[in-house]
Design brief:
This protein has 3 domains: 11-144, Chitobiase/beta-hexosaminidase domain 2-like (Chitobiase, domain 2); 150-422, Glycosidases (TIM Barrel); 434-511, no CATH class. 42% of the residues lie in helices and 15% in strands. The chain has 16 helices and 18 strands. It has helices at 29-44, 68-78, 102-115, 162-171, 185-193, 215-230, 261-279, 327-343, 357-360, 372-385, 399-402, 409-418, 424-436, 442-460, 470-489, 493-511, and strands at 11-12, 15-16, 20-23, 51-54, 61-63, 86-91, 94-99, 119-120, 128-129, 141-144, 150-155, 176-179, 198-204, 238-242, 284-289, 306-310, 348-352, 389-392. It has an 8-stranded parallel barrel, surrounded by 4 helices. The chain has a 6-stranded mixed β-sheet with strand order 4-3-5-7-6-10, sandwiched between helices. The chain has a two-stranded antiparallel ribbon with strand order 1-2. Helix 6 crosses helix 7, helix 10 packs parallel to helix 12 and helix 14 (442-460) runs antiparallel to helix 15. The longest helix has 20 residues, at 470-489. The two termini are 44 Å apart.
Amino acid sequence: MRALPAVSLFLFAGQLWPVTIVVRENAAPPQKFAAAELVKYLAQMGNPKPEIKEFPLDGDIYLGVLPEADRSEVEAALRDEDSDSFIIRSRDGKLLLYGKSPRANLYAVYHYLESLGARWYFPGRESEVIPRATVRLEGYNLKQVPTFRKRGIVIFQSTPGFADLADFAAKVKLNTIALHSDAGLDEAASLFESRGLTLNLERHFFGESFCPDDGATFEREARRFRDYVARLPAQMNEIFLWAADKFLEPCPSPRYRDYTASDLVLSFSNRIANVLRESRPQARFAFLSYLSTWQPPKKVKAGPGILLEWAPMFQSFAHALDDPESAVNAEYRKDFEELLKEFGAANSQVLGYWLDDTLFSRTHYGRLPYAPRALQGDLEYYHRAGVPAITTFGVITGRDYFSLHVSPAVFLYPRLLWNVGADVPAAMREFCRAYFGSESAVEIFNLLEQADRMVWIERHKLRAERMHDPALVEKISRALALSDRLLHSQSGVEGRARAAKLIAEVSSRLAVMPEK
């Protein structure tokens, strides 16, 4: 790790003196959890265990509360910002960690710990990087504002290591986890409370018949929907319940024969949104653009309470959405921009597949691709378009996956959601130093990026035979040789385990290539 800046030492009779953390007595659960996390990690860094005091007592670190002299200025600086925004400021020997919301206070704590060298690259304690570091109070004056309002992931509560995933999500400033089924809903809600995570559901719920003049089918679906929504948490006001996961048939009625699947599903969604407002007047219902509903509706307009959810499952992951080199993405982009004209960018959410191991393991090629420029380009495109909400499938990317693989997309995705302009090459150099103990590992990932790009270009040409292109095999073989060299350079158990996972990450590219 790079050398730490000058630090403030708390010495008493030759001993490091513990800092005091000031919090409000009736603080919300995320703020209380933030204080506990600050105590835990500062102690792990080798500092005396901090003490917690209740405001208005004086202290060294003010968490979610402000001295009277700073209140108006700090609150004014955050007044017009996103609710997840926070300020970290040094003032007269004190440190102010202040977020606009209880959850933002937790983000401020993690950001401060990162300034001391803490890193969370993957879920699980074994992936933490917690260096020896002395408490620092001086030299801070920053405000952090997220690029995207909603930053999420869609997973199953039954995914192995689910608690680790939730813990990791908060540490990397994701703010929403959606379950892909309602199994484990209550357990997830309890786990999320302390971290301020928003709980959503995103799942297939309705059938496959959406003919507008089929009153009996609609009434049956509406009754199921009313009963289901009545059991959901009261604060859940964005409802993502989708049509059956299959290509939908046209309506046989002569009146609606020329309606596309998009028209039929949007007409149904408008009616279901009216049902939803009977019990939740402020709630919104999502129209999912996916499979047979890719194209914009032509005959039906979005009614009140409808939001767009766009899921480009078959995009090219070798290119950003607006990369002119990709004909596949050009078609997606054309449809998406027409949808934005109908629904409005501010009323839209992207459901991506960047972390969806279920998708990538079904294709010609391996695990989560390493395509940082394409990932950043996608998110930059959505940000320019004005889309405020981004989430991704990651439904089985859990403990079993992380025990075998080292996929940087897992930490680059949340980092770019928070700051779409983040310096990815610098982040990767830092990751290789902190996680593997050697910046030289960057070369391995550079080779993987080149290989993954080649594979996805060929995949969209349906040319599986090119997977044995000598140039592709050479890049993967070179990355494998460098990974093996990294493994043999490691002297500790932890270093060898991490290097072994990197070898597995690289080897997976060779293992799934089709036979010649």
